[in-house]
What we know:
Rossmann fold; alpha/beta; Transcription Regulator spoIIAA; 3 domains
Amino acid sequence: MTAIDLSRTVAVVGTGTMGQGIAQVALVAGHPVRLYDAAPGRAEEAARAIGGRLGRLVEKGRMEPAARDAALARLTPAADLAELADAALVVEAVVERLEVKRELFAELEKTVADDCLLATNTSSLSVTAVAGALRAPGRFVGLHFFNPAPLLPLVEVVSGHATDEWAAESARETVAAWGKTPVRCADLPGFVVNRVARPFYAEGLAIHEEHGVDPAVIDLVLRECGGFRMGPFELTDLIGQDVNEAVTRSVWESFFHSPKFQPSLAQRRLVESGRLGRKTGQGWFSYAEGAERPLPADAAPRPAPEYVVAEGGLGPAGELLAMIAEAGVTLRRAEEDEGTRLVLPSGGQLVLADGQAACEFRDVVFFDLALDYRTAGRVALSAAPDVPAETLAQAVGLFQALGKKVTVLGDVPGMIVARTVAMLGDLALDAVARRVATAEDVDTAMRLGVNYPLGPVEWNEKLGRDWAWELLANLHETVPTGRYARTLGLHQWAHTAPPTGPGDAS
């Protein structure tokens, strides 16, 4: 199967933001494109808007004037569905209502040729359900572009229950020829990105709701410690609280109210109040003119401890041992080199977040996971209210000696970055086990679709196969709601040794 020839027409039905973006992508790739919208005059307006955007590309030197003129010559508004009869591919981008989409495709099926690919850009509905009333559902696929379609590289190519392999492969090769990065996935709720990404928002919201941590603090830690480009609160303000909450609710309902996907009451109240984010001027943060983003306070400067004792290699935080020695703090090794902790002069312990609550221990300070401890600008600490002041001060001073800003939280089991990454890995491996997509495609989708610094499967491989398994086991015991129960995919992955060489692969 090959990509659809550039001489063949691509039709786009629905001329909102996504429809215009998809049309522009196909047009710039070289196809004749026809635009149709049920509302009179909308297709003509969309064609003019696309022309304006191509004009701006010319002004910026990113497109030649001749290429712009040739593209616009291939762009035709259609006044009736019958004008799409010769299309080789029709992509629908209308309102997210199942009955509307089903009625549209029933009409299109009567109009186009039998070899025409039919595709929906739905992000939340079942591709199988949309195609359910078709006479020939084998040629129906999901093509989920991300907004803005001309800029973002990822396209999820979704096979419904009845989609033929030739159709899915033709769609994949076509969007690849358009310069996009396609990932194949099965038709399960949320596809890849909207399914696997839920914990990024959900854990931030849970930490805020359950532990009273300020949204600005959570965003700051995930950016400066976890390496994410944006935190969940500023990102949902950008997306729109109503949009993000609706996707979360849709996935939750599709999974029969699984606690893994439970929506947030705090976010529901925000939506009910009309504080939808940037588009209304107020969400978690204010976007009024002159408004300043809250700047959380860093821990006050503390002297570094004279020495620390390392018990074990610190697991995923092992790089800290070399950094401590380089900072001039004496590093001693315990005689029995077991465990994964640092012992401070006070007798208190510094332990990498493992899902346990600090209140369970007399003198322990937990520190959060970092994407890279050398480059991270910040480290977060978690301590129970009754931890000795000397222990907390020494913990703060140690990380400050390593050149890090320090954020001190209350008692937050699993902390912020660690529990977020563990949950992302859990749902990613669950998707792989359920054959939603391959591990490689899951990681590609999450890097390109939501700009994660690492794919969640790759990240958990880097941390060790038992790391997320153990953290979620502790968190499930601490917070036994079912949310942190480990999926079978994580269980199988944690208990399967990875190949160590070419001869071990089978």
